[in-house]
Amino acid sequence: MESEALAVLNLPSKNSLKSGTRAGNSSKSASRPMKVLLVCLFLANWQTVRAEESLSAETTHSLDKRGSSIETSTSDAKCSRIISLAPSITELVIALQLADKLVGVSSFDNVLSSDSDLPRVGDLFNVNLETAHSLRPSIVLALHEQRHLIKKVESVGIKSVIFNHNTLEGIQQSIEELGALCHVHQNSDQLLSDLTREMASVKDSLADQKVLIVIGGVQEQLYVSGRDGFFYPLLKHVGLKPAFEQKTVATGALAAEALLSLRPDHILHILPPNRPLPSKEVLKTHWRKFAGVPAVQRESIFVRSEPFFSIPGIHYPKVAKAFVEMFGELNERDPS
Prior knowledge:
By secondary structure, this protein is of the alpha/beta class. Helix content is 43%, strand content 15%.
């Protein structure tokens, strides 16, 4: 190998270096250290390249769901054992065809099959570190709101990635990031393409009606969804106008006059999945003190509890379509 390097550099071989006489060759002797240095640099560089090539092709031994050792490419080792701490992330993992990599999920995951025996590791507020550590995950995926949990997870040596699912941009970015992390670029590109096509099919056909979205039922703390929320861009996408332009806030922090001044044409309550829906009479009673609001006058008050409403994630086109179904029909019937 060394002789090949000398040939490439057009340098004399060891034998030729030895054969020359010292007398009359002082200039050659003076250049000899430089030639030796060039050879050493070339050989060192060649060894580094070979080492990097070897590392990129290296395989490691990771664990499958049952804890058995399996041979895994280093490029895939980061996603060999995934824990998801949020339902929207679990949905994303499944959509990218990585379901077989899941070893643990959140307590509120309902997107898995009924016979799934995956351990429940935690929720939005808590995480069972003992369970998480026992699963020996290669990565834990969490939401921005779970930063306090991730500090605990990382304190026991588990790597993590945080996603933001509060905005459409954040959801789309999480698709790209997880696709890159787990080397499933084709799947993530296809998913983004499908979502873009679905959103394009939802026409911007509704009049500029104002919609007030509140999170929660009538007998609990309510939050008014604002411009920092998941629903804001979806309302605008279908031609509706969000009634509340400030950041999401609890209704208790708003004076009655402030709510009255919003004058929404429609009010939409978002409830968690499987929550009993309040009757129209209960809704009318709750909003009676805001009788001057157009939505209350028209009794245009809705309640939705489908999972895609309360779990911001990759199903956001369904929310946009639901807006068209709910408010589009009313717009055609009563455009005033």
